[in-house]
Design a protein that fits this description.
Blueprint (H helix, E strand, L loop, with lengths): L1 H9 L7 H35 L2 H7 L1 E4 L9 H8 L5 E3 L4 H14 L7 E4 L12 H6 L3 H16 L5 E2 L23 H16 L12 E5 L18 H8 L1 H8 L4 E4 L3 E2 L2 E2 L4 H11 L5 E3 L7 H5 L5 H11 L4 E2 L3 H11 L5 H17 L19 H14 L1 E5 L11 E4 L25 H7 L4 E4 L13 H9 L3 E7 L20 H9 L5 E6 L15 E4 L7 H9 L79 E8 L3 E2 L5 E9 L5 E11 L10 E10 L4 E8 L6 E2 L5 E2 L3 E10 L2 E9 L1
Parallel strand pairs: 1-2, 1-10, 2-3, 3-4, 5-6, 6-9, 12-13, 12-14, 14-15, 15-16, 18-26
Antiparallel strand pairs: 7-8, 11-16, 17-19, 19-22, 20-21, 20-25, 23-24, 25-26
Helix pairs in contact: 1-2, 2-15, 3-14, 3-15, 4-5, 7-8, 7-16, 8-10, 11-13, 13-14, 16-20, 17-20
Bound molecules: 1-deoxynojirimycin (NOJ).
Length: about 750
């Protein structure tokens, strides 16, 4: 896989000097050769194995089976199935003895001795839980994502797991969708950087190592575009949009060496992904040159019957098989029907061999033929101090300070009232997809406050996020009255986001708003710390609180990290990876939208309540907006405060006109004008003003973190290449079109300096 990366990276077209070009061509050919040689040896082995396999054994390799990790005995039938070569891989076998025994049977007793792969959803940690992926995305930091993935792989591989169903790379623009929690957010550039980092972290640049997990880029594709944020729902994505946005993170994951891809549950433009030949064959294997294997999602093949695309289970098998889906997760359409379909000549054995080869190739990459067994010398070091330290750092990198009326950081001796359903909720702060994380190890805010001798009193006020009882209000008000500052820990329980957990309202559930409003009447300053799987609407209470810190579901080390941030030992460093809506009515919402023929103009916006009764009907002067909300989000993409302030000045551009093989450099001067040292993320956006296809109003193209001492000034530079200006047009060609471009630089997508250049 490594070799393949080199090949991809080297194909960067932007070398224009002859010597470099020459060197490049020599290296490029060299790399291909080495790759081809090592490949040939493996391919020969694969061909040899396949030539000895019966049709039944071949079909067996395409089966991914689950087991119950709770059962006391290893079911006899399962052992028989492995012995007979009827299973290629397992998911969720969370009993080490079963893993060892099943693998032993596969190696010693199955017809060809082909090893099994054991898979698991290791999404944002195995035992040590990191912030949810949307939180990790808020770090805008590849190192943070990579370290989370590395720690996860080290811990999970000790269970014999060598394949994780991650990273999830679904672009998400709708926070009603429960799985936005697992997503990298709304931006394809940021998502691509994270995709690469996750794959590198899981695979450690060498899949053959015992602590490496094969990554699985999922869900292919358009799962996050589900209509109305309703999970599993229909996605309608026109082809240029698919290429310019949704495919981008998948391209990055494959370029980084991800050897597997999972199909999505949804249909896209009328064809379910799991039976979509155009997607799996033409796009994935053709355009993206994918050489690994494609796995279905859980019963997503037979789900095509409910979609109204397949007539029955047999038809499902035919459609998925011919589309190029290699491995079927849990459902058995392949096991039950492929043989019959072969006999009827509806499918070919050549295609069957092709799918088997794709799976065996990954087994070779994982070195399972030589080292099939779980490494016994490796213990996993769950909750190792180093892992906990990285998890704590990840929370600080991910938490987004949305508001601060100079109340944070708190003074050392501040008397604090800690209130709210998530201040001491060990399970809830771990978030979605944490099958293996143990809540006994969770460090909550209240435990961190106790350990750090904070002067605080605690009462939940509401015993869980959806609680509608006001019984706890009285005590909450009492301790609030006796304090200097109220820390309110609100948000959502973990179960309110994740798969099949979409919400129509994104308000704080239960009586949280009522409790915050009651507490506000005490006149004490309120700091709202939100734990949640999605941006939540805080429009109704924003004026009642003095500060808001979004900690997402922060994982095992949420407490100590939040303590450090609130008391200024660390600065919250996250920036929003999604636009934060005012209400659910604004969704879907994303900064990189199109301009429209009547772009939103805050100057002409007339708020609904100021329209006179009986006003003359006219649309003149009106633009694309809601009468009651306007068009802006509550907080824009890229937004986040710290404990100091920065001024951005002197945006300079190296040339105002460039040709199609030139780069352009930009520089901006940033001064820390606040009272503390601090960090920021400098963001560069581009707008292609006129295109043969309309282009987004802004697209993130570069960003750089900076750290400045109080009073310090730094100049940050960026280089934009022609590749950054390209897009896929209506005829699906990547094009570089002449014209004018706006460049925006700032610390979020709405607060930028601007300059322009022309591409000739
Ligand atoms: C269904 C989910 O959609 C997918 O993301 C997950 O990996 C599989 N189930 C396996 O648990």
């Amino acid at each position: 896989m490594k070799k393949r990366n080199h090949k991809k990276e080297s194909s960067h077209f932007f070398f224009n000097r002859f010597t470099l070009n020459h060197l490049f061509i020599v290296c490029y050919l060299g790399v291909i050769n080495v790759y081809a040689q090592s490949n040939t040896a493996v391919e020969e082995k694969i061909t040899r194995i396949i030539s000895k396999m019966t049709v039944d054994q071949k079909i067996g390799q395409l089966a991914l089976r689950g087991t119950s990790s709770r059962s006391k005995d290893l079911p006899e039938q399962l052992k028989q199935d492995v012995k007979n070569g009827k299973i290629g891989a397992f998911l969720n076998v969370m009993n080490k003895a079963y893993v060892d025994e099943l693998q032993r049977i596969a190696i010693e007793e199955s017809p060809q001795g082909i090893p099994l792969i054991f898979a698991r959803d290791v999404i944002h940690g195995f035992k040590t839980i990191f912030p949810i992926p949307l939180g990790l995305a808020a770090s805008w930091d590849a190192e943070t994502a990579k370290s989370a993935a590395r720690v996860s792989a080290i811990e999970a591989s000790s269970f014999g797991i060598r394949w994780t169903f991650a990273p999830m790379l679904d672009i998400a623009q709708d926070s009603r969708w429960g799985r936005i929690a697992e997503s990298p957010g709304e931006d394809p550039y940021l998502a691509s950087i994270l995709a690469k980092a996750y794959v590198e972290g899981f695979q450690n640049n060498d899949l053959s190592q015992p602590t490496s997990l094969a990554a699985c880029a999922k869900h292919f594709i358009g799962y996050g575009a589900a209509i109305g944020g309703r999970d599993y729902n229909t996605a309608i994505i026109h082809q240029p949009l698919l290429h310019n946005t949704y495919l981008k993170p998948f391209e990055a994951a494959l370029a980084a060496g991800a050897p597997t891809v999972m199909t999505s549950f949804n249909e896209i433009n009328g064809v379910p992904a799991s039976g979509n030949k155009w997607l799996l064959n033409d796009i994935l294997r053709g355009k993206l040159d994918f050489k690994g294997f494609v796995v279905s999602d859980w019963n997503s093949t037979t789900g095509m019957i409910d979609h109204g695309y397949a007539k029955n289970e047999k038809h499902t098998a035919e459609l998925s098989f011919n589309a190029g889906l290699d491995m079927e997760m849990t459902s058995k359409s392949y096991e039950n029907h492929l043989k019959e379909l072969l006999e009827e000549k509806k499918i070919t054995e050549t295609q069957l061999d092709f799918l088997v080869a794709n799976i065996l190739r990954v087994k070779f990459q994982l070195d399972l033929f030589k080292n099939p067994y779980r490494s016994k010398t490796f213990t996993g070091n769950y909750y190792d101090q180093k892992h906990l330290d990285l998890a704590k750092k990840a929370v600080i990198k991910s938490s987004v300070l949305l508001k601060n009326n100079a109340i944070l950081p708190l003074n050392k001796n501040t008397k604090v009232a800690v209130i709210g359903p998530l201040a001491n909720a060990p399970l809830e702060q771990l978030g979605t997809w944490i099958f293996d994380g143990d809540k006994k190890h969770t460090q909550t805010p209240t435990s961190a406050f106790t350990n750090n001798k904070v002067n605080f009193k605690f009462t939940e006020g509401l015993s869980y996020s959806r609680d509608t009882s006001t019984q706890g209000f009285k005590k909450a008000l009492e301790i609030a009255e006796a304090s200097d500052v109220i820390l309110f820990f609100g948000g959502e329980e973990a179960i309110l986001s994740g798969e099949a957990h979409s919400r129509a309202s994104i308000d704080l559930p239960g009586k949280q708003e009522a409790l915050i409003k009651a507490l506000a009447k005490t006149g004490k300053p309120i700091v709202l710390v939100i734990m949640g799987g999605r941006p939540l609407s805080i429009t109704n209470i924003i004026d009642d609180v003095d500060a808001v810190l979004m900690a997402w579901h922060p994982g095992t080390m949420g407490g100590p990290a939040i303590y450090e941030m609130l008391w200024g030992k660390s600065e919250p460093q996250g920036r929003l990876p999604v636009s934060w809506p005012k209400t659910a009515g604004q969704l879907p919402l994303f900064y990189n939208h199109k301009s429209t023929g009547r772009p939103f103009d805050p100057k002409s916006f007339v708020q609904m309540d100021s329209i006179p009764v009986g006003a003359w009907q006219s649309s003149l002067g009106n633009t694309t907006h809601y009468l009651d909300l306007g068009a802006a989000p509550h907080f824009p993409f890229g937004y986040g405060l710290g404990y100091t302030r920065f001024s951005y000045k002197n945006l300079k551009i190296s040339k105002t006109t460039i040709s199609k093989n030139e780069t352009v450099s930009l520089s901006v001067t940033i001064t820390n004008t606040g009272k503390n040292a601090g960090s920021d993320i400098v963001q560069l956006y581009i707008q292609d003003i006129v295109g043969s296809l309309t282009r987004p109003v802004k697209e993130l193209k570069r960003f750089k973190p900076i750290f400045l001492e109080k009073g310090e000034t730094k100049t940050v530079e960026f280089t934009i290449t022609p590749k950054d200006l390209m897009f896929v047009n209506n005829t699906l060609q990547p094009v570089l079109e002449s014209g004018d471009f706006n460049v925006f630089v700032g610390n979020n997508s709405a607060n930028t300096l601007k300059t322009t250049f022309t591409l000739n």
